[in-house]
């Protein structure tokens, strides 16, 4: 790629922040998106402290006008987006079917189906003009495990997989690949108070006997965004220590 600008949504903390920093370390100029300017700026500052190139962009990526404006601002500041990482997420309450309503499902569809759609449509003209592009969706291996109480979340992540596979066929002729990374449970900042015994049970349940790290996920995203992955599309790659094998 001649232009290497990556837009990472939900990158103020957690997986998104590590993905942004890993892409920057690989030479990408990174547009760091989050809901608030402060959250996005924290990651952008960290990238620049590491010697990379980044700028912060606050936007609600479930709002069509905000997404259009976001991509316009990124293009004006860093250049056309040639890699899109749809990582933004939200609250993940556990709700049993007896209590589940359509209003509980909708926020997940907004984040994991509507937002990727809005983002892809906004960056597509630039990618087509460049003759190349990478779209990487951050899914979840929960779609395989089917844990009780998570059906609304899994519905959203399942929709994201459907978008991935459909768009891979549609965009491949334009040199644009579309893939999905499905992390297992990767502890980040919000999991600081998890019971150590629970962590140990989790480790014991997967073939690779350690907890996954955000860097494990980021490394796969960096590969999928690279020129080396130009012949990989429509794939769903689980990053979970092999837990889906059980």
Level of helix content?
40-55%
Total helical segments: 8
Poorly predicted residue ranges = none
**Helix-strand string:** EHEHEHEHEHHEHHE
Structural class: alpha/beta
Profile the largest sheet.
7 strands, parallel
Distance between the termini: 39 Å
Q: Based on the coordinates given, report the CATH architecture.
A: 3-Layer(aba) Sandwich
How much β-strand is present in the residues?
Answer: 15-25%
What's the CATH C level? Alpha Beta
How many β-strand stretches? 7
| Overall 3D shape | globular
Keywords, please?
about 250 residues; Rossmann fold; seven-stranded parallel beta sheet; 7 strands; about 45% helix
Topology summary:
Elements (H helix, E strand, L loop, with lengths): L4 E4 L5 H12 L3 E6 L2 H13 L3 E6 L5 H14 L5 E4 L15 H29 L2 E6 L3 H4 L5 H21 L4 E8 L12 H9 L9 H12 L10 E4 L7
Parallel strand pairs: 1-2, 1-4, 2-3, 4-5, 5-6, 6-7
Could you characterize the architecture of this molecule?
Helix content is 46%, strand content 15%. By secondary structure, the protein is α/β, with parallel strands linked by helices. The chain has a single domain (5-245), classed as Rossmann fold (3-Layer(aba) Sandwich), CATH 3.40.50. The protein has a seven-stranded parallel β-sheet, with helices on both faces. It is globular and about 45 Å long. The mean pLDDT is 93.
């Amino acid at each position: 790629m001649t232009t290497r600008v990556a837009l990472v949504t939900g990158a103020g903390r957690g997986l998104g922040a590590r993905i942004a920093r890993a892409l920057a370390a690989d030479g990408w100029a990174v547009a760091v998106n989050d809901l608030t300017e402060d959250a996005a700026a924290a990651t952008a500052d960290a990238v620049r402290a590491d010697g990379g190139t980044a700028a912060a962009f606050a936007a609600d990526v479930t709002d069509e006008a905000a997404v259009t404006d976001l991509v316009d601002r990124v293009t004006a500041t860093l250049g056309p987006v040639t890699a899109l990482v749809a990582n933004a997420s939200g609250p993940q309450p556990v709700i049993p079917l007896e209590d589940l309503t359509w209003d509980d499902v909708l926020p997940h569809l907004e984040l994991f189906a509507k937002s990727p759609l809005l983002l892809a449509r906004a960056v597509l003209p630039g990618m087509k003009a460049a003759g190349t592009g990478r779209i990487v969706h951050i899914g979840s291996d929960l779609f395989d495990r089917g844990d009780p109480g998570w059906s609304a979340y899994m519905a959203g992540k399942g929709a994201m997989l459907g978008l991935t596979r459909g768009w891979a066929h549609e965009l491949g002729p334009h040199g644009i690949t579309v893939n999905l990374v499905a992390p297992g449970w990767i502890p980040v900042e919000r999991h600081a108070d998890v019971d150590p015994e629970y962590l140990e049970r989790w480790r014991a349940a997967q073939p690779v006997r350690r907890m996954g790290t955000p860097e494990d996920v980021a490394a796969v995203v960096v590969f999928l965004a690279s020129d080396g992955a130009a012949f990989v599309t429509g794939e769903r790659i689980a990053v979970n220590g092999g837990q889906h094998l059980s």
